[in-house]
Specification:
Elements: E1 3-7, H1 14-21, E2 33-34, E3 37-38, E4 47-49, H2 61-65, H3 67-71, H4 76-83, H5 86-89, H6 105-117, E5 123-127, H7 135-152, E6 155-160, H8 163-169, E7 172-175
Parallel strand pairs: 1-6, 1-7, 4-5, 5-6
Antiparallel strand pairs: 2-3
Length: 184
């Protein structure tokens, strides 16, 4: 249920660390443990939201939101039933049938975060989720994420370059050094 941020300069290994935690890469040494279980090299333990929203322009918002569930083998009908109730929580109710180009940047990020959360994982990996947004939208999204996290208490690992974002959102902030990255 903690919200932890990692900050550090570009190229220090923050995204590599995320790939290791997500099971997409194998560490040279050490292990990843999630919920007291060894998770090194095992995907599917976390829900991962990359820096860009990566919404498919030909899919409507609802179908973009359920993409992760479909990849896991959940039927489209069941995936939609799981996702629909979350649209209000994510501030995008009424936009289910829109296409991504019809949404603002902040709304697109909310869809991407909904796609991450609907997978039902206890651990969320958020890699610079608001980095591409303008300052005002970013501030609004940070406040919104804080409220939603307070309501749900997911475990969140956030990578950011924004010190204020890290301090505002997080229980703990870890600072990485220049490459090769080390926790300072």
């Amino acid at each position: 249920g903690a919200f932890v941020s990692i900050i550090g300069p570009s190229g220090c290994g923050k995204s590599t660390l995320f790939n290791i935690v997500a099971g997409l890469s194998t560490p040279d040494s050490g292990d990843v443990w999630i919920s007291a279980k060894k998770a090194t090299g095992r995907g599917g333990q976390c829900a991962y939201m990359p820096q860009k929203d990566l919404l498919f322009p030909w899919r409507r918002v609802l179908d973009n939101a359920i993409l992760g569930l479909e990849i896991q083998g959940v039927s489209r009908k069941e995936a939609r039933e799981r996702a629909r109730p979350l649209f209000a929580t994510f501030g995008i109710a009424g936009f289910e049938e829109y296409y991504p180009f019809q949404l603002s940047g902040g709304m697109r990020q909310r869809v991407a975060l909904l796609r991450t959360v609907v997978q039902g994982r206890d651990v969320l990996l958020l890699d610079e989720p608001f980095g591409a947004l303008d300052s005002l939208t970013r501030t609004d999204m940070q406040a919104w994420l804080s409220e939603v996290w307070e309501a749900h208490h997911w475990t969140v690992l956030l990578v950011t370059h924004d010190i204020r974002e890290a301090v505002f959102l997080s229980d703990r902030v870890y600072v990485m050094s220049q490459a090769p990255g080390r926790i300072r």
